[in-house]
Amino acid sequence: MKKNGLLIVLSGPSGCGKGTVVGKLLNQRDDTVVSVSCTTRKPREGEIEGVHYFYKSREEFEKMIAEDAFLEHAEYSGNCYGTPKSWVDEQLAAGRNVILEIDVQGGQNIMKLRPDALSIFMLPPSLEVLEARLIGRNSEPEEIIRRRMETAIWEISQADTYQYQLVNDDLQTAVDEVNAIIEKENH
Ligand code: 5GP
Predict the structure, then answer these.
(1) Which residues line ligand 1 (CB under 6 A)?
(2) CA distance linking residue 159 with residue 121, whole number of Å
(3) Of 14, 64, 76, 105, best ligand 1 pocket probe by most atoms within 8 Å of the beta carbon
(4) I need a surface site. Which of 18, 44, 76, 130 has the fewest CB within 10 A?
(5) What is the tens place of the pLDDT at every residue in 79-137?
(6) What confidence category does residue 2 fall into, taking pLDDT thresholds of 50, 70 and 90?
(7) Which of helix, strand or coil describes residue 19?
(8) For residue 93, how far is its CA from the centre of ligand 1 (angstroms)?
(9) Total Cβ atoms within 10 A of residue 181
(10) Domains contained in the chain, CATH given
C-alpha cells in the first residue's frame, strides 16, 4: 500500500515570504503540493482564483463551515480563511506531501487535530524588514498594514510552538532549509 504523504503546516506572519518560498520549493519537488485555501478577502492585483485562493463571499464561506468542508478555518485581520478538507485528504492518501500555508491559529488547530503533522515557522529577518515588505506590496491601506504588524508580533511570540523555526533572509537558503526538513521527515 502507498505511504500517506506528510501534512506540513507552514506559518509565519503575512509578508514574511511563505508564498515565494513554497512556490520555489514546489518547482524542486514533484511529490509535494500546496493546499489552496478559501478566503473572504478580496483578490490583490495579480492574484488568480484557484491559484492563490478560492475567493468567497461571507455567506458562501459560512455555508462551507456549516457543511463541515474545512479542515480548519480562522479569522485573520478581519477576513476569513479556511483549508478545504477533502482535497487535502485525497492528496495525502495519494502519497503526496501537502503544505498548508496558514496562520498561527490555524497551524495550532492542525497540530491538535493531526498530531503527526510537521510544523515549520518562518520568521522575517526583522520587524523592520517585514513592515517594508508589507508596504512594498503596495496593495493595502496603512490601517491594514498596522493591523498586520500587530498580528505579526503576536504570531512571532508563538514561533516556539512549532517543531522547526527558520529565518527567511535569503530566499534560496530558506527553500533549501524547508526542503531538508521535508527530506528528513519523509524518511
Ligand atoms: P493573506 O491575506 O496575506 O494572503 O493571508 C493572511 C494570513 O492568512 C497568512 O498568514 C496566511 O498564511 C493565512 N492563511 C491563508 N490561508 C489560510 C487558511 O486556510 N487557514 C488559516 N488559518 N490561515 C490561512
Answers:
(1) 14, 37, 41, 72, 74, 76, 81-83, 101-103, 105-106
(2) 6
(3) 76
(4) 44
(5) 999 999 999 999 999 999 999 999 999 999 999 999 999 999 999 999 999 999 888 87
(6) low
(7) helix
(8) 24
(9) 18
(10) 7-186 (3.40.50.300)
